[in-house]
Amino acid sequence: MQPQDLVRDHTVYACVMGSRAFGLATDASDTDRRGVFLAPTPLFWRFEKPPTHVEGPGEERFSWELERFCELALRGNPNILECLHSPLVEHVDDTGRELLSLRGAFLSRQVHDTFTRYALGQRKRLDADVRTTGAPRWKHAMHLLRLLTTARDLLRTGELRIDVGELREPLLAVRRGEVPWARAEAWMARLAGEAEEALRGSPLPAEPDRARVAAFLYRVRRASALQAEPDHEVLQGVVGGGGVGQR
């Protein structure tokens, strides 16, 4: 089975991300598609394991195998968590619906560290742009402000919302370079401070619910194994081991 066949035949959840999901799309915006596929359990019985992620098929499409996706989500990866909360869902099956029902299990106060760490990396790149060219890449500045706003609101409310709503026009003004860099910097600093303050009283739990996610992953792996028809070539390779008496 080729990697892109896993996406075509075994996707459990697919959505649109990027500017279109954030409510920041313009006429020039791409359509970024993200998804989660469930590799059939028998594929893990081989020496060559299925891929943890796949690019394509098609442009601007990227998918993760379910276990890898859950692992990253439990770590509080901003891109993964936002993918789970996209308002633009293109495909979801029963496994995907159960995954979406677990969205709260992935959230914890640890998101402050992961979102902040990601934001700091983006900010360093913006500062490097200013030093070398005299101006930041304004699109990246806009998305950093969006990310900081998302992190603050998530810590305040315990809910992750990725559509920017009424902030659309102020953020697009940043993208167009209509906001002085000093004002954008002050906005970033204010958001970071508000996120720090929100952390202290956040309704989020201290840690994600790993046990609940692990139980879900076990169930779907087991169901996949039980539903699979016997793969005689795989079984022969496992049982035979290359010859009787070999170690």
TrEMBL record:
Stored PANTHER family: NUCLEOTIDYLTRANSFERASE
Protein name (database record): DNA polymerase beta superfamily protein
